[in-house]
Design goal:
Blueprint: E1 12-13, H1 16-19, H2 24-39, H3 41-64, E2 71-74, H4 77-87, E3 95-99, H5 104-116, E4 121-125, H6 133-146, E5 161-166, H7 178-187, E6 191-195, H8 208-211, E7 215-219, E8 231-234, H9 262-268, H10 288-303, H11 306-328, E9 348-349, H12 360-374, E10 377-378, E11 380-384, E12 387-391, H13 400-424
Parallel strand pairs: 1-10, 3-4, 3-5, 5-6, 6-7
Antiparallel strand pairs: 2-8, 7-8, 9-12, 11-12
Length: 425
């Protein structure tokens, strides 16, 4: 499979989860589409674009177990988080729940909502790994139930609680029992906003109509193989009245109570799909990533389909993680017998001990520079719960020997860091 990617032959990519990497057939399809756009930009943007976008939305909706009228495309997961959180009408007494493992870009959106609405309250649910799924569900339920319910007032007759949670944490790369967490939110009358940036193309049987999150979004340019960058945002009909505008606000936006312009309804052939219209034209942007989803899904079917791809990646993540831990003399984070938290990413402790707090950034910078510039190999690395970890991604272009080469590189670089810290002490 490695022949179908454009990597430098000297480079080993074990960090697919960060930025994704489109296969060469997807790149070629995107280039053909780009040439087509430039042959007649006006025809493309005024006529061809809308039915092509609808075909992608239709396919993605089926893939994630939703309806087309509940699915739109945006630039990336951080944009999707911004769209959802900034469309809520925040009032005095409302509560916004985040997690200690929330991706930094999404966390900053939470912070900005608080900064611009100082009358709301933030609640932080802390997660420190290793921890089992049963313990996560138990502590999450306890945290949610311990939140004081805001009292209704004349200024806020219907106070709300909104919880932002992960399906798959970015760092560490852990699959959470997010469907159970969504159910807890439902039971407690709380809106669930699921950051599923890593889910599509990695997590099988999503079936959002059954899981019933209030909001859900995922990057198509990561595990689904689309061109960078593109994300799908799911908003069920019951909550579409909350999301009144995309980001940025399109010239197709209509104020509440005002009908959409008839010409836009005609162009997009909405058939009950009016909510999605303002998302179909976010201004002049590169539309090829959105449309590359079809080529990406075609490639996945040609390779063998979702089950074949993910069976290979999950087996490699598990075996590669164990082999890497052996080389490093450490452990994998998910030590459960069934690998309940491991999909296509594994987490392995690095042999870095007793690093002073003021040297953590230094250690991460050395790891980054040595791995990329000297060893020509990379996997995400981070500091979590008092330890340094790495998060290798397993992809169909990887094999076990990549993990072994990664181990050799980490052993060397970690020894360099420890020697430098000892000398500076």
């Amino acid at each position: 499979m490695h022949q179908f990617w454009s990597f430098d032959p000297k480079y080993i990519n074990l960090n697919h989860g960060a930025f994704g990497a489109p296969p060469t057939p997807v790149q070629r399809a995107s280039n053909v589409l780009s040439d087509q756009i430039e042959e007649s930009p006006d025809r493309f943007f005024r006529i061809d674009w809308y039915p092509m976008l609808d075909s992608v939305r239709e396919r993605l909706a089926k893939f994630i177990g939703a309806r087309k009228e509940e699915v739109v495309l945006v630039q990336n997961a951080t944009v999707a988080a911004s769209v959802v959180l900034r469309n809520f009408e925040w009032r005095d007494g409302d509560i916004l729940v985040g997690m200690s493992t929330t991706y930094r870009g999404v966390f900053k959106n939470i912070e900005h909502v608080r900064d611009t609405n100082p009358h709301i309250t933030l609640s932080d649910f802390h997660l420190g790994f290793p921890i089992t799924n049963a313990e996560i569900v138990k502590s999450f339920r306890e945290h949610i139930r311990a939140i004081p319910r805001p009292a209704a007032t004349s200024a806020n007759p219907d106070p709300k609680i909104v919880c932002v949670l992960d399906s798959i944490v970015s760092n560490p790369g852990i699959l959470l029992p997010w469907k159970e967490m969504v159910k807890i939110c439902q039971e407690e009358g709380i809106y669930s906003v699921v950051d599923a940036a890593h889910s599509i193309g990695q997590e099988m049987d999503l079936n959002l109509e059954e899981a019933q999150p209030d909001f859900w979004f995922s990057n198509c340019h990561k595990w689904l193989y689309a061109k960078r960058s593109c994300a799908v945002l799911y908003v069920p009909k019951r909550n579409q009245h909350i999301v009144k505008t995309g980001f940025p606000t399109s010239h197709q936006y209509s104020s509440p109570g005002q009908p959409l312009p008839a010409d836009w309804i005609k162009k997009t052939e909405t058939n009950g799909d009016e909510w999605a219209v303002p998302f179909s034209w976010p201004g002049t942007v590169d539309t090829t990533p959105y449309l590359s989803v079809n080529a990406a899904m075609d490639f996945r079917e040609w390779v063998g389909g979702e089950a074949v791809i993910n069976e290979y990646c999950q087996n490699l993540a598990r075996e590669g993680g164990k082999r890497l831990a052996e080389i490093l003399g450490t452990r994998v984070m998910d030590e459960s017998a069934t690998f309940e938290q491991t999909l296509n990413m594994t987490n392995v402790e690095l042999p870095l001990r007793d690093v002073p707090a003021d040297k953590i950034e230094f250690a991460n910078n050395v790891l980054r520079d040595r791995l990329l510039l000297e060893h020509k190999i990379y996997a995400a690395h981070f500091y979590h719960n008092g330890r340094f970890w790495t998060r290798p991604s397993a992809q169909i272009y990887n094999e076990l020997s990549d993990f072994e080469k990664m181990g050799a590189a980490f052993v060397k670089v970690c020894k360099e860091i420890e020697a430098t810290l000892k000398q500076d002490a």
